[in-house]
Amino acid sequence: MARSKVTVVGAGNVGATTAQRIAEAGLADVVLIDIIEGLPQGKALDLAEAAPVVGHDARISGTNDYADTAGSDIVVVTSGLARQPGMSRDDLLAKNAGIVRSVVEQAAAASPDAILIIVTNPLDAMCHVASQASGFPRERVLGMAGILDSARFRTFIARELGVSVEDTHAFVLGGHGDTMVPLPRYSTVAGVPITELMSPERVDALSQRTANGGAEVVALLKTGSAYYAPAASTFEMVESILLDRKRVLPCAVMLAGEFKTDGLFVGVPVVLGRTGLERVFEIALTDAEQAAFDRSAGAVRELVEKLATL
Asked: Which end is more exposed in the chain, N or C (fewer Cβ atoms within 10 Å of the end residue's Cβ)?
């Protein structure tokens, strides 16, 4: 049986680390593509030379030509400018929209049956760009944000309570950014809601830290942005799709009436399987949670409207 094929667009830190995780898990052959000559080829060769030590037989290749990506099962788009200190996700909008449009058009032409996973910021708006550029159905255009936001929330909860991250589950909805909506009553440690385990003030503080999680890493690094956790989060989506695991994971998808929202990419829990989005996992929200979700969706709508004027 032929191995699956995954193309990772952008051979920067997020792209290369994602390629490493996919290959080292033996999940798929990986093609790393970038506009810079030599960069994807060099990183791919370096990763390939690690294979005998790590012990996998996945093929990793680097290229500047989309012809080499043909027939991919999944295309992960990480290309674009990373955030710099003081830069908002919105500052990236115009520059990254042009980059994402171009790479998705080329990747979709080479792999018309692929599932797209968008990682480039501002995430929700870039999903809209990818959807339009590819013409793919909503099942095959997904944004990676909620898994990363949830992972950050889980990290902070586990550290606060001195428990394993494995027993800590967090629920985060909405746009990727300052308007994200952590849901503390659905966030649990061994099934117990965190609202029972810490004060409302601590819950709010951790929720706020989660919303600013990306900016916190950017401020510390000073040159660049997070990539280990984003790559691990992207890998979790790739694995659920290729192995048809039907994981329930928070991803940005085009909503068609779910959560009282229509025609916008917003982060919600979805079932991910071999065909991509299998269904939106809709849950009842309180009035306050729905209001926060609507605010988050409104922030995404503003970006999409800005895109239309670019």
From this structure: N
